[in-house]
Specification:
Elements: H1 10-18, H2 23-30, H3 36-93, E1 100-103, E2 106-109, H4 112-137, H5 141-151, H6 154-171
Antiparallel strand pairs: 1-2
Helix pairs in contact: 1-2, 2-3, 3-4
Amino acid sequence: MAFEKLAQYIDIIEKGFGEKKSPRAIAKELGQPGLYSTINRYKTAVWDLKDLVKETKEERAQHHEERREAAKFEIIKSLDLIEKIKWRASQHLDRDVGDSYETADGERHATPGQVIAWHSAATEMATKAMKLELEMSGDDPESRKAVALESLSEAELDARLKELLAVLDKAGSYREGGGADQSPDPG
């Protein structure tokens, strides 16, 4: 061991480091001023490393928290945008033939063709916005399927696979051990 001279004093040395004492002061306290350089090397090799690891963990936790907050901010921005899209779609769906609206050329009245186009666009906008909202919350059909599949154990999956293979075998679409080639033996 590189620091075997310090083995009998290690608890006192570490207590001294905890109290922010210098290696020289600790060596004097021990009545072993000659151990100063070894205590100093020990501090550099072990104690300072502990502090570095602690600092690194704190920085990583802070960085993780910052990334988490940034992700929350992006999600909130996305949800706000989805709400605006739904609101705009609602506005378009509220328009009727003959309603007046402003353009750069002045006031106009909605024609049946315009209302149909607005309603069609609004329906598509609302549908896409609601689908995105469900996907973000994990409540869409694909997410639910994924969660359901994750919850199945390997044994359940094997049992279901055997059931499916049995059904296919009964239907004549699958021959156990036959692989993809279902042609009769020419020989």
